Amino acid sequence: MKKQIVQEGMLLGGKWQRREETIEVFDPGNGQCVATVPKANAEDMREAIQQAKNGARVAKDLPIHKRQSILMSVASYIEEHKTLFAETIVLESSKTITEARREVGRCIETIRLSAEEARRITGETIPFSQMPGHESRIGYISRCPIGIIAAITPFNDPLNLVAHKVGPAIASGNAVIVKPSSETPLSAIRLAEAFMEAGLPDGILSVITGSGREVGDELITSDDVRFVSFTGGFDTGEAITRKAGVKKMAMELGSNAPTIILSDADLDEAIHSTVSGAFGVAGQNCIGVQRIYVEQSVYYDFTEKFIEVTKRLKVGDKREESTDIGPMISEREARRVKSWIGEACQKGATLHCGGERKGAYLTPAVLTNVGQNEKVVKEEIFGPVVVITPVESLMEATRLANDSCYGLQAGIFTSNLESAFYAIQELEVGGVMVNDSSDVRIDGMPFGGVKRSGLGREGIKYAIDAMTEEKVVSFKLKR
């Protein structure tokens, strides 16, 4: 594996810069420092915003074919260097090499989709003559860039979630300032390198590494920043909305996603899908399966086979092709999740397998007999833990699935169309996956939730809509 530069730079207004004060980046698998990045301060962020003001003017006037060309060049660059990108993800995050390669492939798709959607930023005509006295007027609506986008990204998808904010921002003619997770900033830096290699004009993109409280607050509270796109936890998202003031926002704030298994389901398919959906990326996935509600008549058969398949998963070195599950992002997070398991067991839950911790590694845990008010059910655990609960009917399963402050996505396995449509209508979520677990996403679909799962939708077309403003134009003609 290519060794990382000892001290990485951050991209400020198109220029790579370093600082004496740095942040260490660790490999969560072994706890070793793999790189340092600049610890930017509030003054650095103010400079980035000033550069973005200039960059926004340049981006607005950048012809659409030029935006497309840059984005396609970025996608080609990532394709040519996909090994480096995958190794960077493995180095700084929880992902196995297989998961990292998959994320790189999705990032390429995200950037290409952004290039394609740039040509589809269209408006519509307005029939002014619908109102008496306006017969001599004709008009239309155009979409204009909003200006400066703040993009705040998490650790669990350190490359593609950055691309989901930067790609649409560039496609729609905006400037964008990325504040990546301090735990996984290297992938964002690699992506910024791709944009610089593709000829993106200076000032349009900055990647600023530093403390969220210092540089993040400076970014979101600036009156020059017109849109905040945040992916992360609810508490942080709520704090951002309170600090940011009146501006557009998109918030993806996580979930404790449910999947329902009915008695007429293909159990083998349901088990394969839910095991994968529960434990991929060591469970650190906002749409990962956390709660499974199984109809009583197939509950014991499903649970027994689910546990059997779970026990076969290999936890270990992220770089080994045979590894299924890597470490959590930190030992601290692994300790937290283990403590949640312990709390549930103390209150009567049954732990069938897993829950063993070594450093940041935590073996995948399956719990039953868990009360609906326990933390592992009510809150987002963001770790390799699943709770399986028997239900008497689809109605009960839907009621329990909805008994949550979250509502991002849900899954249901059934061969009955009426059952599927009942779930589609009644589940209080942003997406229902039929004969799939909750863990389904393609980069072109609208993605987001209801309740505490967030505001707005990601997905390239939908992000572009949010990152642009409608402008009404009217012509009065002489008759």
TrEMBL record:
Keywords: Oxidoreductase. InterPro entries: Ald_DH/histidinol_DH, Ald_DH_C, Ald_DH_N, Aldehyde_DH_dom, ALDH-related_metabolic_enz. The keyword Oxidoreductase applies. Residues 18-473 form the Aldehyde dehydrogenase domain. Belongs to the aldehyde dehydrogenase family. This is Aldehyde dehydrogenase family protein. It comes from Alkalihalophilus lindianensis.
